[in-house]
Amino acid sequence: MSNILPYLAGIYIYPIKSFDAVSVTEANILQSGALANDREFALFDGQGNFVNGKRHTKIHQIRSSFDLSSRSLALSIQGSEQKNIFHIDKDRIKLESWLSNYFSFPVKIEQNSILGFPDDTNAPGPTIISTATLELITSWFPGLTVEDIRCRFRANLEIGGVPPFWEDRLFGKEGELVQFTIGKVVFAGVNPCQRCIVPTRDGITGESYQNFQKIFVDKRKETLPDWIVRSRFNHFYRLSVNTRVVESQEGKVLHLGERGNMIKY
């Protein structure tokens, strides 16, 4: 492993949970360990449940473009050229009305600028995966591209310069935190991320890929590295690493392309 030089190859922010990613060149760390603006907003129905890809396939067909500086959100329906522009703060009522009409039930938008709305509140830091992992997984599914797989698994930080599943070194036994650094930011790897139904669907159309989960599970088990902490895999539908910070890293910044000894474990 001494000749491996990991570098930060991609930073992806999801300002609105379940909507499209925003690719950025740098990201600020919040006190919680989350990336600023990531999953800062989420949609909820009248019963207080998330309106997300797990519950509503229709959400995949919403195309979104979020300008982080102007707080401007452009929404359209897949296949339509009509764009609807909203200011995420000033046009909240109009935005909620548009979403309610689309889903045919009342939708509210909630905001959490401190923690965001992570799936794993015990590990609210960015999820991490390697580019080589995405490339290998793509080879398991004829007809899909690396971008398709990236869109399905929705990790925040992508690491280049390493072999497939290198990121699985960033977690240990149950209850053990593995500390590592990216640039000047110190993270702790918590666990391999348990996946849901969302990766089985096309991130653009919502169409299911036949036997996606079975193929993934069989291949993941087959390619599981010998050195991995196997006890963390009660099942093999797990991919990417959930993280958190051990102590506040607030105000530190991740920069695209940081490399060399930027990651240690």
UniProtKB/TrEMBL annotation:
Entry GO MF terms: catalytic activity; molybdenum ion binding; pyridoxal phosphate binding
Pfam families, per the entry: MOSC, MOSC_N
Source domain of life: Bacteria
Domain (MOSC) ranges: 75-263
Name of the protein described by the UniProt record: MOSC N-terminal beta barrel domain-containing protein
Organism annotation: Limnofasciculus baicalensis BBK-W-15
